[in-house]
Amino acid sequence: MRNFEVAFIFNDIADMLEIKGENFFKIRAYRKAARTIENLPVEIEEMAKEGRLQEIEGIGKALSDKIYEILETGTCHYYENLKKEIPPGLVEMLKIPGLGAKKIKVIHDTLGISSIEELEKAARTKKLRTVPGIGTKTELSILKGVEALKNRAGRVLLATALLVADQVISSLSSMKEVTDAEVVGSLRRKKEMVGDIDIIAATAAPETVLNDFSKIPHISEITERGATTVSAIHDMGAKIDLILVTPQEFYPALRFFTGSVDHNTELQSLAQTMGYDLDETKILNKNSNEIFYPESEIQIYEKLGLPYIIPELREGRGEIKAARCGKLPEVVELEDIKGDLHIHSNFSDGISSIKEIAKKAKSLGYEYIAITDHSKSLKIAGGIDEEKLKEQIAAIKEINKKSDEVYILTGIEVDILSDGTLDFSDDVLSKLDIVIASIHSGFKQDTDTITNRIITACQNPHVDIIAHPTGRILGRRDPYAADMDKILEAAAATNTVLEINSSPDRLDLNDLMAQKAKEMGIKMVIDTDAHDKEALEDIKYGVWTARRGWLEEKDIANTMPLDELLKFFKVKK
DNA sequence: GCCGTTTTCGGCCCGACTGTTTTCAGTCG
């Protein structure tokens, strides 16, 4: 957890330096350090104790000093001074699409605006256009950006919420008065973004637990407190709701507060027809007035004649009917995944070497991986040209020969260029085991243009997979205007596999789109798009998304053993 | 701010797109 805390501060510093107009490379040093620390497989505190901070790539004297200070005091002077200098509203404004540090500074300097509310007002009253470099179009786009930001206010990514929830639950579990604690709500159902982090805890001493709750690290503010409930704000900005129940009420409450509302309503209707009444504390037999306190969620579903329904499926999308007919999907499990087919190495913009990635993959129990770096046109990501690709293929063959680690497939994430052509010739693509095609430019093209680009890629006999098919970035960028129905049809017609990208801010395809693809007979892969060996662990987010989309092992190509997978990808060619 | 068989300063991702200008700056990936 402390890694996250240090990374958070470094990112905040980078934001503020950006507004100050500091040296680009200095800012990048803070961001890079933040990313490295966030993904560090060990506790930064441990490394600090051993005096090994400067062994971390990208951390020198200045940053390591700040890390020591943060670990000791929770903050550092440099950070606190910056916070005094830069109004927090300006940092917030960085989240507005189309508005960057330079414009924020000039707006602040010209009109004295230092909050999003003031910015919105200035845009509405047409004062923003008086700022040098801002015209009517920019004014309008800023207004749109503010709207978009408001719409997602307070929502956090699943990955962030889980991190916070784990920390709070482990603190709760360590209290001797707490017998059980579990995350509930949409977070337990593994929705891609959540508004609140809901937690229930079982205790016979609610008063004591509520008092101790406010002492949990990083709980910065208690916003509401009742006899058995408390709401708080976590340092990371997430809202936490804690509900206390008695130990015997724990499982009814777990079921009830996990939701969803639709699932609960349907379940209650079914219970009623069977003579039961379900609520958050018990199961009541209406005929005999007998009260039943289940000792697991399984017992609740059993009582209603149903098999257990996993939280990811509890969305009221027909799961109860399916459960009644014995037609619940046998959803894919993390252990079913036999390899990751979308990984970047240090040949392009990844941090880790192929060997390091292979070692990590082995530790995850994988049978194979594919190295799929960016292609030459994506300059910012250090896209590789034909020559470098040849070098990489040779390097991979060499590693495969010598090592008993996972089998490494050669591959590329080839850019679908703005004109719809691919960044490499068919001849080059034909020499690779796995070809992933994806879009990294021309995001704002109209529906026809961008749809046709992706369809053309599907039609290329060498393209195996379309990566992050909708292009959305959660909380930051909408999907491109592509017609997904047409793309699904093209994928189905050409046997092109679609990706469920596990990166926590993508999860693309999402659950519903993946379910639709499954119904059309399209195969999918769950990949991480990792740029760092540690990010291979992100695969769980993709698996959860697939489970929410009712996907089974047979729907996912990378659950196949290697020989079967290779045969499968040859069918199209 | 980091890094270095260029050892102590200078290099460290580039290019398209957009909107504001009138030749360019800011944003984004």
Automatic annotation (TrEMBL):
Residues 51-70, 91-110, 126-145 form the Helix-hairpin-helix DNA-binding motif class domain. This is DNA polymerase beta. SUPFAM superfamilies: DNA polymerase beta, N-terminal domain-like (SSF47802), Nucleotidyltransferase (SSF81301), PHP domain-like (SSF89550). Residues 1-315 form the DNA-directed DNA polymerase X domain. GO terms for cellular component: cytosol. It comes from Tepidanaerobacter syntrophicus. GO terms for biological process: DNA repair. Keywords: DNA damage, DNA repair, DNA replication, DNA synthesis, DNA-directed DNA polymerase, Methylation, Nucleotidyltransferase, Sodium, Transferase, Ubl conjugation. Its cofactor is Mg(2+). Residues 339-418 form the Polymerase/histidinol phosphatase N-terminal domain.
